[in-house]
Prior knowledge:
- By secondary structure, this protein is an alpha/beta fold.
- Among the domains are: about 1-15 and about 25-70 and about 130-145 and about 175-255 and about 315-385, 7-stranded beta/alpha barrel (Alpha-Beta Barrel), CATH 3.20.110.10; about 415-525, Up-down Bundle (immunoglobulin/albumin-binding domain-like), CATH 1.20.1430.10.
- It has 20 helices and 8 strands.
- The strands form 2 sheets. Strands 1, 2, 3, 7 and 8 form a 5-stranded parallel beta sheet that branches. Strands 4-6-5 form a 3-stranded mixed beta sheet, sandwiched between helices.
- It is globular, with a radius of gyration of 24 Å.
- About 45% of the residues are buried.
- The model has no long low-confidence stretch (mean pLDDT about 95).
Amino acid sequence: MASGYLAIVLHAHLPFVRHPEYESFLEETWLFEAITEVYIPLLRVFENLRKDGVDFRITLSLSPPLLAMLQDDFLQKRYVAHLEHLSRLGDQEIGREHADPRLLEAARMYRRLLQETLDIYENQYHRDLVGAFGRLQDDGCLEIITAAATHGYLPILRTQPAAVKAQLEVGAESYRQAFNRPLPGFWLPECGYFPGLEESVREAGGSYFFVETHGIMNASDKPRYGYLAPLACPNGVAAFGRDPASGRQVWSANEGYPGDPWYRDFYKDIGFESDFDYIKPYILDGKTRVFTGFKYYRVTGDTNQKEPYEPLRARERAAVHADDFIKRQKEAIERYAPSLDQPPLIVALYDAELFGHWWFEGPQWLNFVIRKLASDKQGLELLTPSEYLERHPVQQCAQPSASSWGDKGYSDFWLNPGNDWIYRHLHDAAGRMQEVVRNNAGAAPDSLTYRALQQAARSLLLAQASDWAFIMKTGTAVDYAYGRTRDHLARFNYLVDAVTSDTVDEERLEALEAMDDIFPEINYRVFA
């Protein structure tokens, strides 16, 4: 029996960005970059592990907006065009860097990766990445969970309890539609929790969720095992606490592995540094510089004189850092285990997009970690939250405290002078939705009223996404975040007004249905 457990949990989420009304759209590249740099690389790691007979367990959260975009035929076609576009740039880059062997190696690597990615996406996965992840779950390698419907920040939405209920129940239904199985647990958006939220989690079908460390440590009763074991909420739903040390080792700008001088520098991209006339055919509409993924320099250090990126040296460092990570987890287990009467559990929570996008070598590191743990049969075992609960079904009962994993640990990041204006509108809209649902609970499925209420529910959920408040706080793409919030609220209010006055315009409704086609199976009565 292992002396300790390690649960690695990756949370994959992007806001729902789909703009068929435009020839191309900057924010859609968020998805395209993530598919190329994160989701397909992770799938390749997992499938190679399985092919090599490596027994492993990883927990992966796929948010409902991400599931919807990965399954969307329109976005799939745009992604293929995006890859073909970058492949032409790859051909150009090999010729351009031919005279510098230090950069040529990286150029050839990028061109090869693009070719392989296109082939895998089209011919191996047939554009169905959700199905590919689902097969890994069916094989027992992954435990896939999900988040709230549009990643709404639940501790603030709780002003309207029906909004919290709808976010979780629509999210759970999205999961069941995608994977045809019951939902194991939830990744609460931003790990945002408030006492009592476990009731909505249970009603939606989840048996566990995750909280920040202090959500466990500040619980109603002192946790006997600290954050090294989950707590059972009063209704029996398990709350797993994040291990802070494993987070710092991978995330921290100062202590974390991605800051190693041999790793690739994310920001040194030819999309922003090449001559404009050269890069013009490969940027957005030939006008707006964007990241291309062609990055030729390594982190190096605090200097503007970056050294060329060497992929083989970076891979070697990923192996070294995998050894270091495992060593540190084992040391923690050895330190804690003697004082506990059950094996301690380290819960390592990460945004999936760190692995491959922000930290290019992240998937390689994860591959090394899994293989090394599998070959070492002593001390530390990878498992999923469900497996842990099966082995240890009785947990200490206590109420976790309010918490999030955002700055300062509570709700400051999502409620501050830069974004607080949105919430009075969101709360008002949730109240209006409940009223119009009560007044039209029996709308016939073939009626314009029914369709308008279905679309109003989609618009409200999209307006509630935590991404918009997050972007307003960070200062990136602020105009887009403002616009999305205003647009979804305007669409919602139009639809509710039209239903109330019995003036639904079918042509306008069809346009809204085409633009915001998320959650086709939604039932508007979830807001009752």
